[in-house]
Specification:
Elements: E1 3-9, H1 15-25, E2 29-33, H2 39-49, E3 55-58, E4 66-69, E5 81-86, H3 89-98, E6 102-105, H4 122-132, E7 137-139, H5 148-152, E8 158-161, H6 163-166, H7 171-177
Parallel strand pairs: 1-2, 1-8, 2-3, 3-4, 4-5, 5-6, 6-7, 7-8
Helix pairs in contact: 1-2, 1-7
């Protein structure tokens, strides 16, 4: 997990087109966030993609190359790369004990993409999480290009971005800006 953690979100349009754009831009992986979609539709989307980077599925175990779970989504029971959204150091410890491959941590900044119902952890909170976690941390929540240098100074290896890419006039250029060349993904094995 280094650089842009791509988020293809059905709330922002065509998930397949978004996933392909994120892979082209150099994302380290792509998470399909398809709230309200059934397993069959998600599986068909994954099959149509055939991307050179890992495809993770939000909230669905056993699809793609792995997945991502929230705090209330139960245990991970499948193979592959997987992570859990966390908001405290205690939640990071629990995710590590479960065998998570990485943790999403935040929200770092205020976000308009999702009602989170909790205060932002801020840059200092993120810095503590990065120092505390034995597995990679992905920064989540309110990440913009203007905030990226500050974010990188915390030592966080990866960041998930939604609105700053899908709300941009040119999403490919925006995604590439979040994926510096030295952090671009290598193809999956």
């Amino acid at each position: 997990m280094k650089g842009l953690y791509g988020m293809a979100d059905a709330a922002f349009g065509d998930v397949e087109a978004q996933a392909r754009l994120l892979a082209k831009a150099g994302a380290c992986c792509v998470q399909l966030r398809c709230k309200g979609w059934g397993r069959a539709r998600i599986a068909a989307t994954i099959e149509a993609l055939d991307l050179p980077i890992p495809v993770l599925v939000n909230d669905h175990v056993g699809l793609g190359d792995g997945g991502h779970l929230g705090q209330d989504d139960g245990p991970w029971t499948g193979p592959g790369l997987w992570g859990r959204s966390t908001h405290t150091l205690r939640q990071i410890d629990a995710a590590v004990a479960e065998g998570a491959s990485y943790v999403g941590f935040g929200p770092v900044f205020p976000t308009g993409t999702k009602v989170v119902g909790r205060a932002e952890v801020g840059l200092e909170g993120l810095r503590h999480a990065v120092g505390h976690s034995p597995i990679p941390v992905v920064a989540i929540g309110g990440i913009t290009l203007d905030r990226l240098p500050q974010l990188q100074q915390t030592g966080v290896p990866a960041w998930a971005v939604i609105s700053a890419i899908w709300g941009a006039t040119d999403p490919l250029t925006a995604a590439r800006a979040f994926s510096p060349g030295e952090l671009r993904a290598a193809p999956r094995p």
